[in-house]
Amino acid sequence: MTRQSTVDTLKAMQFSAMAEEFERQLADPDSYSQLSFEDRMGLLVDAEWNRRQVNKYKRLVHAAHFSVPSATVEGIEYYEDRKLDKRQIVKISTCQYIERVPLRILSLMLHKRYG
C-alpha cells in the first residue's frame, strides 16, 4: 500500500485525524525517525482520539442549547448583588458531590426502610 493510498483509506474510514497525523509524520521524517513503530502508532491513535473527544464535546455543548456556550466557572462574576458564594461554586465545580450522592441516597433509603 502506498503512502497516499494509506492516507486515502484512513480518510475513507473516517479517521481524518489519523490521516493528518500520518501526513505530518511523512512531511517531517527527521523528527519521527527516532521513534519506534509503537510510538508513532500511538501518536496516530492519540490524534484521532483527541479529535473525536473535541468533536463530542462540541456536539454536546451545541445540543445543550446553553445561552452562553463558552461560559466557564473561572469566568463567573461575583458581584455583591448576586450573593454568590465563591467557595461553594468552586466546591460544586469539582463534581466531588456526585461520588457521594449515591451513598447518601442509599443510606437514606436504608434508614427509611430499616429505620
What can you tell me about this protein's structure?
By secondary structure, the protein is mostly helical. It folds into two domains: 1-71, no CATH class; 74-115, no CATH class. The model has no long low-confidence stretch (mean pLDDT 89). The radius of gyration is 24 Å and the shape is elongated. It has six helices and no strands.
Q: N-to-C terminal Cα separation, in Å?
A: 70 Å
> Which runs of at least 5 residues are low in confidence (pLDDT < 50)?
none
Label the structural class.
mainly alpha
User: H/E order of the elements?
Assistant: HHHHHH
Label the overall shape.
elongated
Number of strands: 0
Instruction: Please give the share of residues in helix.
Output: over 70%
Number of helices: 6
Main beta sheet, described? none
Average predicted confidence as pLDDT: 89
- Beta-strand residue fraction: under 5%
Number of domains: 2
Query: Measured on Cα atoms, how large is the radius of gyration?
Result: 24 Å
